[in-house]
Amino acid sequence: MAKKPENLSFEDSLSELEKIVTDLEHGDVSLDDALKQFERGIKLVRNSQNKLENAQQKVAVLMQEEGVDTLKPYDVEGE
Quaternary structure (predicted)? Predict the structure, then answer.
């Protein structure tokens, strides 16, 4: 049985979403299975969005605690 979306890591959710998209794009899935996969994908997307929003809130709180107003773009040396 597949794990509930809320129990998956962000990376695992993305990986499963990629598999669902690939399966649906190939069209070798019955209509019922396609609908089930689509529904699962929607749940994974919503959960992933929630995780991203929570991460953004944590970053904002940490920045506020440190007195940082804005983030600076990351500059990779040599680019």
Answer: Heterooligomer composed of large and small subunits.
Whether 16 contacts 4, CB under 8 Å? no
Tally DSSP H helices, then E strands, for the chain: 2, 0
> Buried b vs exposed e over 19-45: b needs ≥16 C-beta within 10 Å?
ebeeeeeeeebeeeeeeebeeebeebe
Tokens 């440190």 belong to which residue?
A: 66
Q: Model-level pTM? A: 0.75
For the beta carbon of residue 65, count every other beta carbon within 10 angstroms. Answer: 8
The amino acid sitting at 3 is K
pLDDT of amino acid 34:
95
pLDDT in tens, 33-64: 999 999 999 999 999 999 999 999 998 888 88
